[in-house]
Amino acid sequence: MTVEIVSIGTELLLGQIVDTNAAWLSARLAEIGVGVYRRTTVGDNRERIIGALQEALARADGVITIGGLGPTDDDLTREAIAAVLHEPLVLDENEAARLRAFFAARGRDANERQLRQALRPISALPIPNPNGTAPGLYAERDGKPIVAMPGPPNEFQPMATDHVLPRLAARTGGRVIRSRVLRLCGIGESDAEAQLHDLIASENPTLAPLAKLGEVHFRITARADSPEQAEQMIATMEREVRARLGASIFGADDTTLEQAVVQSLIAAGQSLVVAESCTGGLLANRITNVPGSSEVFLGGVVSYSNALKESLLGVPAETLAQYGAVSEPTARAMAEGVRQRLGGWWGVGITGIAGSGGGSPEKPVGLVYIGVSDPDTTVVKRQLFAGDRQTIKYRATQYALWLLYKGVQAGGCGSLSRL
Amino acid sequence: MTVEIVSIGTELLLGQIVDTNAAWLSARLAEIGVGVYRRTTVGDNRERIIGALQEALARADGVITIGGLGPTDDDLTREAIAAVLHEPLVLDENEAARLRAFFAARGRDANERQLRQALRPISALPIPNPNGTAPGLYAERDGKPIVAMPGPPNEFQPMATDHVLPRLAARTGGRVIRSRVLRLCGIGESDAEAQLHDLIASENPTLAPLAKLGEVHFRITARADSPEQAEQMIATMEREVRARLGASIFGADDTTLEQAVVQSLIAAGQSLVVAESCTGGLLANRITNVPGSSEVFLGGVVSYSNALKESLLGVPAETLAQYGAVSEPTARAMAEGVRQRLGGWWGVGITGIAGSGGGSPEKPVGLVYIGVSDPDTTVVKRQLFAGDRQTIKYRATQYALWLLYKGVQAGGCGSLSRL
Questions:
Q1: Domain boundaries, chain B
Q2: Residues with Cβ < 8 Å from A247, sequence gap 6 or more?
Q3: Between B48, B302, B356, which is nearest A284 by CB?
């Protein structure tokens, strides 16, 4: 079964909001084996909505609209679907009663505009919306479903999950699609692809690379007649990828690098403290985004000024004077200083030039030194990152997390000098 | 002039990535008076790309594609445009030379796949891409432009800005669209809308609210025959909005709240230090995202553990024992302690429960105390934020930045007790 998605809203065409709904729904449809070969976005214009619906129904086995179901004059999805069905709009008494009760509970009367949301083409069923005022619509033309859902994600996602996806899944015969993402760090996309070249040529399951900032993802997607069969195909492909690139894989699916680090630290029973200069708190922020990170993350210092590098971390004034704040010795002193002063098993020190200003020929924007210290030893890496200020900050924290991850896995940071 | 946007990529249809490019381009086209009535997304399928292009050219005055220009077998945009033009693909020698030089500089040969990126339909011009390997394409059919740009945003956006938008703007006659966003904090969307109700009804310029996490935006959009006239209409509307809600406006267009804070601090010649517990470095990170923040931001402490609240900030052990880490006295001691120990004019202390665990009936998830301290006084605010862990962290930093902004504007934080 294939469907097309029609996103409706002039605010989309003006670029005022990004269509995350369509991406979310596309992913959910793929999971239940419903193919999407085209998505269309049109504005709040009755004729253009009708045109998009008719074209979609001519190509696909069904159409799902998102948006345009609210109470205002700009909300024209109901009218357009009625026109496509050649049906009149009638008031759904149940939905009208629900709307009146909704507004009565808020001390207001449901006005005529609000009650428009209870209109439906005569053959359509309303789809319950417990999170908002506008119900969805479920209709069929020549056996092809026409589904309409409201645009606010907190209404749209539950409606899709609870009502629309199960209904579509029940219509699809077999063909199940499952996928799994393997997440890699410390290796470039092209290097990784080169080592997986033959696997990337596979047709089912497929293996597709996706370059992300500071990491590389490979998505394995299997099409099969049952979930079990699809999972088995994925497992076989995953084993092969891990056999070749396992040293660069830190997690799967939604596992972030900071989650992998926190989980490794918890497993090792080791604590962490960080000292940040150019990354300005981003490393601590990423780590503390992980629920449960307080079990291993004690805290950190953002030593933006040289004075604080001295007073909070004990970086010697001579080191700063002789080598500068952005230098191997300063990163080393920061990592060791934060370990000792804040009392962690692991200490990280980052100093660099995030830009846009502050660069020089010897120390250009993007130059970052990252020190990792454990009770036995300290390793400092020099990196030159490309990008704007926030990108350089992110890449620096990504590299620091990767060093930490490999260090914890290896039982100490001595091994990092070989990375 | 109207154009349609065709986004190309199976990863879009599988929902693996969100199409931010199309929204960004739509907004830029609106600004130069080019209308977009439809956007289409298709996968990496030659026939479907051709179909989408032909349909778009039948409806609109031009078409812009995004994606599918890379070196892999899945990148089929060049082939599809050649088919629509009924033209052969030829190797663009300049682009081929550039690619060979690019790879030579990296110690590699440009292989055949990489050189595919230098192919173009014989009548098409390559559009320079200084940020990646694949050039864009500019062709025309029956006088209608067919523009192709690569998908990576760091390649796509500069190419659109430097080459494509100026070229399209030169083709458009009059009707210019300009817009300006006013950014508000410390006021809810519905309260703000209630005070601007009559203005929101205006047809030209329009005034449209947009709720963002922790702030509210109002976009003024004017349609006029000249840029000057449009700017004048916007200025008139802006004055009216500022007359009513000026106290809540911190900036316009892309100005973030952290930028407004840093600019205010620079103007006041005052420095800032921060102590974070539940926000875990996010406040420092947001501030240090602003170029030039090092002029006023000295540094901060992420005191995740109670031991570090005592040792780094001097929060009394009795305060922690008697009131707990999440309390008004602790936030006060953190703000005052970080001011004194790190030596800033302003000190901020944040302590709370970001979740998902750690809540209790008396101190639920989302409870946050935010202290702001200046040389004269300290004000602590208690807030209960809704959302998941990262949302609560963000809302807490947003509120802290808003307090700082208002405090710096007022010349001291004594005024904050009235907020």
A1: 2-171, 176-252, 257-418
A2: none
A3: B302
pLDDT at B175: 62
Helix (H, G, I), strand (E, B) or coil at A35: strand
pLDDT band at A173 (very low <50, low <70, confident <90, very high): low
Specify the amino acid at residue B366.
G
pLDDT digits 0-9 by tens, A311-338: 999 999 999 999 999 999 999 999 999 9
Span B190-217, average pLDDT: 86
Residue A165 pLDDT level (bands cut at 50, 70, 90) = confident
Euclidean distance between CA atoms B71 and B111, whole angstroms: 10
Q: Which residues in chain A (74-103) have CB-CB distances under 8 A to chain B?
A: none
Q: Considering chain A, what is the average pLDDT of its residues?
A: 93
Nearest residue of chain A to residue B42 (CA atoms)? A38
What amino acid is encoded at B389 in this protein? Answer: R
Question: What is the average per-residue pLDDT within A127-151?
Answer: 95
Q: Give contacts of A274 with chain B, Cβ < 8 Å.
A: 302
For chain B, report the end-to-end CA distance as a whole number of angstroms.
48
Place of tokens 């890699």: A184
Confidence of residue B173 (pLDDT cuts 50, 70, 90): low
What are the tens digits of pLDDT across the range A245-265? 999 999 999 899 999 999 999
Q: In one letter, which amino acid is B380?
A: V
Report the alpha-carbon distance of residue B251 to residue B121 in Å, rounded. 46
pTM of the model: 0.79
Cβ distance of B39 and A37 shorter than 8 Å: no
Indicate if the alpha-carbon torsion angle A144, A150, A155, A157 is positive or negative.
positive
Beta strand B89-91 pairing with B119-121: antiparallel
pLDDT at B392: 95
Q: Is the pLDDT of residue A174 over 70?
A: no
- Measured from the Cβ of residue A204, the count of other Cβ atoms closer than 10 Å reads 11
- The ipTM value here is 0.78
H-only helix segments in B106-172 = 112-115, 153-159, 165-171
- At the topology level of CATH, where does B257-418 sit? Maf protein (3.90.950)
> What does the pLDDT read at residue B387?
84
| Class of CATH domain B2-171 | alpha beta
The amino acid at B325: A
Amino acid B136: pLDDT: 97
Q: Considering only CB atoms, which chain B residues are within 8 Å of A219?
A: 16
Give the tokens for residue B405. Answer: 């902004």
CB A403 within 8 A of CB A347: no
What three-state secondary structure class fits B69?
Answer: coil
Q: Answer left, alpha or beta for residue B297, where phi above 0 means left and psi between -120 and 50 means alpha.
A: beta
CATH of B176-252, picked from 3.40.50.410, 3.30.230.70, 3.50.50.60, 3.30.70.2860, is 3.30.70.2860
User: Can you read off the two tokens belonging to residue A244?
Assistant: 């070749």
Structure tokens at B71: 């070196």
Tell me the shortest Cα–Cα distance from B395 to chain A, in angstroms. 14
Burial B386-417 (b: 16+ CB within 10 A, else e): ebebbbbbbbbbbbbbbbbbbbbeeeebeebe
CA distance A217 to A232: 20
**Is A259-418 a domain of CATH 3.30.70.2740?**
no
Question: Which pair of structure tokens corresponds to residue A14?
Answer: 């003006």
A152 touches chain B (CB under 8 A): no
Contact in structure between A296 and A335 (CB atoms under 8 Å): no
* Domain B2-171 matches domain B176-252 at the CATH topology level: no
Distance CA B140, CA B142 (A): 6
pLDDT tens, residue by residue, B263-289: 999 999 999 999 999 999 999 999 999
Angle at B126 between CA B120 and CA B127, to 5 degrees: 145
Compute CA A55 distance to the chain's CA centroid, rounded to the nearest angstrom.
Answer: 31
